[in-house]
Fold each of these.
Amino acid sequence: QVVLTQPPSASASLGTSVKLTCTLSSGHISYAIAWYQQQPEKGPRFLMKLNSDGSHIKGDGIPDRFSGYISGAERYLTISSLQSDDEADYYCQTWDTGAYWVFGIGTRLTVL
Amino acid sequence: QVQLMQSGAEVRKPGASVKVSCKTSGYTFTDYSIHWVRQAPGQGLEWMGWINPHSGAKNYAQRFHGRVTLTRDTSISTVYMELSRLRSDDTAVYYCARGDSKSWGQGTLVTVSS
């Protein structure tokens, strides 16, 4: 079964950029993933689907400040020009055999 | 626009069952699977299962096998998630989501307490 590994926390200063990481387990490095943002007391918001060829499809209304790219088993979410309301939990998710969804533990982003 | 509207908060005693609805609109109901995900207080997202509204086929996460049942009513574009033999650690917000991950319901808080 595929496993997604995310660091539990990250931080960056207001106005700068941050790169969040999601690592696919061995044998699953060709999997696509989705990135979600979950602000405090809110539901998950779909940010983008990041395909294994590096292409991505964003959700409606997601600003250009959010982008994604891949490198081997790593899937990255980059947020530029950080704003205070970017402070949230960020989850990655993939699709396993049988259309099972698998989530990472989430990364809590603190905007300093 | 695409909407997934869930039923309201529920309180149940341990051992009881709960049924949460997810009414969809703004797209063809049978074109996308519906998944259920839950989030316990202060915890991450946990996938529970999916249903294909067209065929009725379903699949559940192993840890919920035997306790969760997904059904659908195509006449009203609604999917239901029933969780039985509730325990205190089933207290969580339950979300439905469309199979392409793009659209989610607002969440339903289920509290299990004696």
Amino acid sequence: AQTVTQSQPEMSVQEAETVTLSCTYDTSENNYYLFWYKQPPSRQMILVIRQEAYKQQNATENRFSVNFQKAAKSFSLKISDSQLGDTAMYFCASTGNQFYFGTGTSLTVIP
Amino acid sequence: DAGVIQSPRHEVTEMGQEVTLRCKPISGHNSLFWYRQTMMRGLELLIYFNNNVPIDDSGMPEDRFSAKMPNASFSTLKIQPSEPRDSAVYFCASSTTNYNEQFFGPGTRLTVL
């Protein structure tokens, strides 16, 4: 079965610092997509960034970037210049024959 | 675009009552997903539809749960009879295909007393 693992249940970071959230996945698919979602206290699920597995270049969206290591099946999220509004639960997800979510990492940005 | 619309946003009901949750996906999206989120079990996929057809309902917990998608712009998730352990936040999401990013609705917080 396809799995997505987030090994850090909770993390914290000082405002303006950089933090990296880890994610590993397991899939037998050749074509798949990877995603990071953010769920703030409002509980709305918001797409942060996506990565197509066939692309070698790491995706970047403003302060958010990924380190995609396809051979290692690793997909970490780096948040630069952390802001208070980044406080949220972050979910890693992958697609195969269906959508798989990790268990989430709760990130707290400390003023 | 208004995004994925769910109603109601909050529902409080008593054990044994029927509960119907509603979802309007983003226009043009062909895949629709129902999820349940709890502290204990995290985010669980209940069922998903492609082109209004249920593809995988293996996540539906019991026969008390049923989902329909009568047309491309509307889906329901029904619980009958409801039980306290059904208390959770239920999300609907839609996407262009089941491989692409999903856009989530605001969720329905269900409390069964």
